[in-house]
Specification:
nine-stranded mixed β-sheet, DNA protecting protein DprA, single chain, three-stranded antiparallel β-sheet, DprA_WH, WH-like_DNA-bd_sf, Rossmann fold, DrpA_SLOG
Length: 403
């Protein structure tokens, strides 16, 4: 764990406008630590691989107590408040292996859970009743067998997955797209408190970060990056859940999908994933069998948990009522309540990216040079454009314009 003085330098650099996980990684690789970054000159910073614009922002930034005061105050409020860096022993090894791991994590709850075996459960914010039940039942059974259930605290499938885990007192992690001091949607405030008490809430965003549409796809890499596998319960063809699944595949993690009726629009995303190589699953046991080769299930499961899992395993069409949080699966205008003013800059960036991209494959580094947009903002805009089906990821960090 970093000392508070060291941590202040990390937070101050992370708070510089335009610094993202990839640019932070470049700086660490070439200049060792944030303290040295702040004491570097323009030449040293640009030689580390960042733009002059970002270098100016770093040189102009304040590395003082006022800049990081909200984060340090939150950290010192309670014993279960944690801020860890990628160099800390507590940082999860699986997440460290992805191409752009977050340099800092804010954690409210049990820090040790981040290293426990996790299964991510994601899907539609407005699932069918069958999708709601499936998310709940899969989370419950996987939780009973020893997995930590990881999701995004969103309405619909996310909320059902968290609730299923909490129902059987299994650990669950919520990866959020705001500051750790915010709960979005507000309707899940009580659920967030329960998760913090029995699991953990995790974010890469500094204290005070408000909901912003581009941050939600960005956090998906953390959901998949923490997990051995990702289960997609229900998803439309242009769903953010498919981004999570694609990221999981790029991270060499398992992807599972539940099939549905050909007449259900929310099954089409899952069917698309299955055609692309995702494992078709009908029960939690299907996932357990697939994961047996990846992790030591004998150390994960106690004899009591194994017998409980075998006795309770049932069809995902089980009609057991899920009433405690059924409201969380219904459409809610709060999902669209993100301040539209925050998206203006992102929309402008998207138009610039499309103009400069062309229809040939192009890398993120090339786009940074062509557009002048910093890496963090560029990555967020690329995810949004992919969700809008205007561009496609080719793998290997390159993209192609479709329209």
């Amino acid at each position: 764990m970093k000392t508070e003085d060291e941590l202040q330098s990390w937070i101050a650099l992370w708070r510089v406008s335009g610094v993202g996980s990839k640019s932070f990684q470049k700086l660490l690789s070439n200049i060792v630590d944030p303290d040295s970054v702040f004491s570097s000159n323009m030449s040293t910073l640009t030689q580390a691989g960042i733009s002059e614009k970002l270098a100016h922002a770093i040189l102009d930034a304040k590395k003082d107590q006022e800049t990081v005061a909200p984060d340090i105050e939150w950290l010192n409020e309670a014993d279960d408040h944690h801020i860890i860096t990628i160099q800390c022993e507590e940082y999860p090894e699986l997440l460290k292996r992805i191409s752009d791991p977050p340099p800092l994590l804010y954690v409210h709850g049990q820090l040790s859970l981040l290293k426990d075996p996790q299964i991510a459960i994601v899907g539609s914010r407005n699932p069918t009743q069958g999708g709601t039940n499936n998310a709940y039942e899969f989370a419950k059974h996987l939780g009973q067998t020893g997995f930590c259930i990881t999701s995004g605290l969103a309405m619909g499938v996310d909320g059902s997955a968290h609730t299923g885990a909490l129902e059987v007192e299994a650990p669950t992690i919520a990866v959020i797209a705001t500051g750790i001091d915010r709960v979005y949607p507000a309707k899940h405030r009580e659920m967030a408190h329960k998760i913090a008490d029995h699991g953990a809430i995790v974010t890469e965003f500094p204290i005070g970060t408000q909901p912003k549409s581009s941050n939600f796809p960005r956090r998906n890499r953390i959901i998949s990056g923490l997990s051995y596998g990702t289960l997609v319960v229900e998803a439309a063809q242009q769903s953010g859940s498919l981004i999570t699944a694609r990221l999981a595949m790029e991270q060499n993690r398992e992807v599972f999908a539940i099939p549905g009726s050909i007449h259900n629009p929310l099954a089409r995303g899952c069917h698309k994933l299955i055609r692309q190589g995702a494992k078709l699953v009908e029960t939690a046991q299907d996932i357990m069998e697939e994961m047996a080769s990846a992790i030591d299930l004998n150390s994960l499961l106690s004899d009591q948990q194994i017998s409980s899992s075998s006795a309770n395993e049932k069809s995902t069409n089980n009609k057991e009522a899920f009433e405690a949080d059924s409201a969380s699966s219904k459409p809610n205008k709060e999902n669209q309540a993100i301040d539209s003013n925050q998206n203006t800059h992102t929309d402008d960036d998207q138009q610039i990216i499309l103009k400069e991209m062309g229809f040939d494959p192009i890398s993120i580094d090339q786009l940074v040079v062509r557009t002048g947009i910093d890496t963090a903002s560029l990555s967020a805009s690329l995810l949004m454009l992919e969700l809008q089906n205007q561009i496609a990821s080719n793998g290997g960090g390159t993209y192609t314009r479709l329209k």
